[in-house]
Amino acid sequence: MFATYLIGLREGLEATLVVSILVAFLVKSQRRDRLPQVWAGVGLAVALSVLFGWLIEYTSTSLLARSEDRELFEAITSVAAVVFVTWMIFWMRRAARTIAGELRGKLTEALAVGSLAVAGMAFLAVIREGLETALIFYSAAQGAAGDSGPLLALIGGIATAVVLGVLLYASALRINLSKFFTWTGALLILVAAGILKYGVHDFQEAGVLPGLNDLAFDITSVLDPSTWYAALLAGMFNVTPAPTVLETVAWVAYAAPVLLLFLRPTRRKPAPVAAPAGPASEAAPTTGASDTAATTPTTVTERGADTGTEAEAEAASTPQRA
Question: pLDDT for 65-86, tens place per residue?
């Protein structure tokens, strides 16, 4: 259940931050008349995401009659979910500092086109997160048929993300979003490793991969599946006491290198060295316009570092400046 809560929290907060950037830009630009189009696009994206999730579940439970076909379908969706998780985590790490500017530019173009373009802009900004959430949730919640716990955990995670997004937008909450996304990203990598392991097991169940009965180890006597901590490890990261060789290889081969790449410190370009000040600049007043222009980027960058990203900081603090 914690894994699905984490999925809802992470994906929900990303979508909430995107919507906050759009809303803050419209408010600051005195274009509140376009807010209904933004919410219409967001609502349509949420509805289609729910429909997509239902379609995946319906395909697995109703359209596929043979158990082998269901196992193969679940295996394919698991691999697809792992690809989406990996891409999403590294994309957010790379593009977070430029997403605000890109969204503002696209929204400016949409405002010039009309209402439908604004709604479409909001729809496209949210639908990716919604489709990813539906696919990842289905893959992470496999094996919990008839249990409403994972769904409630997902809804709880999304609700928490919405509350955090609203508080950030209203500047009533300050959290280090950079650390937040780093820790949740690392945990999601472990969740994705478990999903991949589950997918390999489904491929073995479907007869696509061999070795269903070749166990890598058996520590059932130490990690009793009936205990609460064994259930927690299995539910979060799909760590089981008796995995097959291929399952173990897949889990380690994915988790180890991806974690190392994700946690590797990013190299920042050194700031350009300022040219020696000439006589004119020496005589310039310290509070002039040129000094303000020179110090503004540093201020923005420092704010972005405190809250995680420049984009997220601007979305959270815009209402105070509006």
Answer: 788 888 899 899 999 999 988 9
**In the numeric block, which tokens belong to residue 197?**
């392991």
Report pLDDT digits (tens) over 184-208. Answer: 888 889 989 999 998 999 999 988 9
**Tokens of residue 183, six digits:** 């820790």
Q: How far apart are CA 15 and CA 48, in angstroms?
A: 15
CB 164 within 8 A of CB 16: yes
Q: N- to C-terminal Cα distance for the chain?
A: 40
CA-CA distances (angstroms) from residue 11 to 30, 60, 312? Answer: 29, 24, 14
Amino acid letter for position 58: Y
**Smallest Cα–Cα separation from 37: which of 111, 115, 128?**
115
CA distances from 16 to 9, 31, 167, 263, 305 (A): 10, 20, 11, 24, 19
Which structure tokens are listed for 157?
């995670």
**215 by DSSP, 3-state: which?**
strand
Name residue, tokens 């439970």.
61
- Rounded CA-CA distance 275/291 in Å is 14
